[in-house]
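Weekly modeling sync, notes
Attendees: S.R. (lead), two postdocs, one rotation student

Agenda item 3: backlog of single-chain predictions. S.R. asked that every request posted to the team notebook include the full sequence so nobody has to chase files. The rotation student volunteered to paste the first one in as an example of the format we agreed on. Action items at the bottom.

Example entry:
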Amino acid sequence: MYCGSGWSGGWFLSGWIVPGLFILALLGGAAWLLKRRTSSSGLAPKACPRCGGLVQEVYFRCPHCGDALKRNCPGCSRVVDQAWEFCPFCSEALKNETKQPTASMRTNQQTP
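Predicted structure, as returned to the notebook:
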């Protein structure tokens, strides 16, 4: 039996389904990335507890006064907020710690 041009033994548009789905997936992924980027960049700044300067949630130190905004938990070593009393990850008490000078601070104090 003779099959004319355009007949591939299946659906007429079957050659466009896979590329069409691929393009649709690319457009959906790009839209998701744009939405994710705009929603995460809208973080409201908060005030530094020491100097009152504006700081972002992701900052570890205040860019105005240098005060530590976050620290590591002594129990699990995860990053926790400086004002927290307990670690939410391992329930370790955090308020009883005294600030220890870091190695870079000790070397700076020893130099004349």
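Discussion: group reviewed the output briefly. The first helix runs from residue 14 to 40.
Action items: rotation student to repeat for the remaining queue; S.R. to check formatting next week.
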